[in-house]
Amino acid sequence: MNGIKASFQSFIATLHTYDYIIFAISGGLFLLLLLLAILLRGKVFLSLIFVFLGFSILVAGPIFGYNYIHTLLYKTEISDLQIKRLEFSEALVIKGKLTNLGKQTFHQCKITSIAYKGATNFLEEIVLPLKPFKKMSIFKTEELDVNQSLKFKMILEPFTYSKEYNISVKANCL
Question: Cα dihedral sign for 113, 151, 174, 64?
Answer without folding.
Answer: negative
